[in-house]
UniProtKB/TrEMBL annotation:
InterPro entries cross-referenced by the UniProt entry: BPD_transp_1_N (IPR045621), MetI-like (IPR000515), MetI-like_sf (IPR035906)
Protein name as catalogued: ABC transporter permease
One Pfam family here: BPD_transp_1
UniProt cross-references to PANTHER family, sorted A to Z: DIPEPTIDE TRANSPORT SYSTEM PERMEASE PROTEIN DPPB-RELATED
Protein source organism: Streptomyces solicathayae
Transmembrane intervals: 12-32, 102-122, 134-157, 177-196, 237-263, 283-306
Compartments reported by the entry: Cell membrane
SUPFAM superfamilies: MetI-like (SSF161098)
Length: 319
């Protein structure tokens, strides 16, 4: 498939997916019990005139389809609406909080890729006791939820040892890196175990392949065999897990940000959901869906570069 055809097809798929996701996100909030008006009144009684004014301000009395189409049109123009809880534009809230979340996800992703690939490679190449140790370690990592890891890391490294802050996002880039170290590790722990296992399985499969046997029979040094014929050929399988890794990071960041009191969009989403802040929840949910689709598109574009046997629009199944 040519690049142009692939790009047009994926753009159409992403547009349809975003439209479907927008309808689900918009409708799901209205299916939940309660209403924005009840939150704004904070349990106080209100006259019919005051309640009507609130409903008119937020268009709560309009038919569902009318509200959805108005909201969709505003979103297409970059207008995310006005937060009911914070009484400010949602775009301003996102601009203030999104960089912190993206930095946290980026730090976690670096930890996942470096440690996960390294452990998987060591386990596959060395085997024996090393392989068993890595399997046990990754089993523990995979079995530890992010919020549990966050509590354990806080208790040990923040409260007991005092090496890292127990919460907050910090001020300035270096201070942010220091504050986000423990949250990044808590967010990455599960995915390190998953990526290490995928890498190990892919490399073991590559080690048993015919071209590796031929390379060894020709006297190619073992390090070169591992680097060029085993590790490189396994990257296609490993890369297909990229979408799953990023989607997990996007979801789990809500729990980690809440545990560490980080002012990112994850914590904002949790607070906005509990207060029925419709515009904020809807905007963040759509951003998460869009980020997930962008990551999957990047993975599809990188796969042919990593493994020439893969063409645009096709993916190898992971081991």
């Amino acid at each position: 498939m040519s690049f142009t055809k692939f790009a047009v097809r994926r753009l159409a798929e992403m547009t349809v997916t975003l439209l479907c996701a927008s309808f689900v996100v918009f409708g799901a909030m209205y299916l939940a019990p309660g209403s924005p008006a009840s939150f704004l009144l904070a349990g106080r009684s209100a006259s019919p005139e005051a309640l009507a004014a609130i409903n008119a301000q937020y268009h709560l009395d309009d038919p569902f389809l009318v509200r959805y189409l108005r909201w969709l049109g505003d979103m297409a123009q970059g207008d995310f609406g006005r937060s009911i809880t914070y009484r400010t534009d949602v775009s301003r809230l996102l601009a203030d909080r999104l960089p912190t979340t993206l930095l946290l996800i980026a730090m976690s992703l670096v930890v996942v890729v470096v440690v996960g690939l390294l452990l998987g490679r060591i386990a596959a190449v060395r085997g024996g006791a090393t392989d068993s140790t890595v399997l046990v370690t990754t089993t523990f990592a995979v079995g530890t939820p992010s919020f549990v890891a966050a509590v354990l890391l806080q208790a040990l490294f923040a409260v007991k040892l005092g090496w890292f802050p127990s919460g907050g996002a910090g001020d300035g880039f270096l201070d942010q890196l220091w504050h986000l170290t423990l949250p990044a590790i808590a967010l990455a722990l599960y995915l390190i175990g998953m990526l290490a296992r995928v890498t190990r399985s892919a490399m073991l499969e590559a080690l048993d392949s015919e071209h590796v046997t031929v390379a060894r029979s020709r006297g190619v040094p073992e390090r070169q065999v591992i680097r060029r014929h085993v590790f490189r050929n396994s990257l296609g399988t490993v890369l297909t897990t990229g979408g799953l890794i990023v989607s997990t990071l996007l979801v789990c960041t809500i729990l980690v940000e809440t545990a560490f009191s980080i002012g990112g969009i994850g914590q904002l989403l949790e607070l906005s959901t509990s207060t029925k802040d419709f515009p904020t929840v809807q905007a963040i949910s759509l951003i998460i869906v869009a980020l997930f689709m962008i990551v999957n598109l990047i993975v599809d574009l990188l796969l042919p570069l990593v493994d020439p046997r893969i063409t645009l629009g096709s993916r190898r199944s992971s081991a």
